[in-house]
Give the backbone structure.
Amino acid sequence: MFIILCVLFFIVFVAVEYRLKDEALMPLAVWVIPNFAAIFALLIIGAGSLVSLLFWYTQLWQNVRHVSPLQTSIQFLPMGLTVFAITPVVVLAIPKLGPRYMMIISALFQMTGTILAVFIDGMSCKFPYKY
């Protein structure tokens, strides 16, 4: 059902963008730029996997491990601190490696994290901190 709605909304979006060529939110001409579709797909998949992981981690911690919302939010701190720490490294590496290789490397890291998340055993893991 949702896939049908998604396809329908996509068709409507493309039709509206085609009619509003001069004022389009995303002009259809950008799709002929080399590598644009691949980069766009990579960003959509990356954002989708991050959002779904955040949702499922929240469900795991609150409904399976029975921790409070505050404790659950504390569990997200390592992810945020990792992003905070790695950002300067990425900024320095982009001029040396180029954006293409940095996107490939980041996609591989994100894919690895997502695959490793499959192996979390929600019943045997205990919340390590007491508040």
About this structure: The CA atoms of residues 63 and 122 lie 10 Å apart.
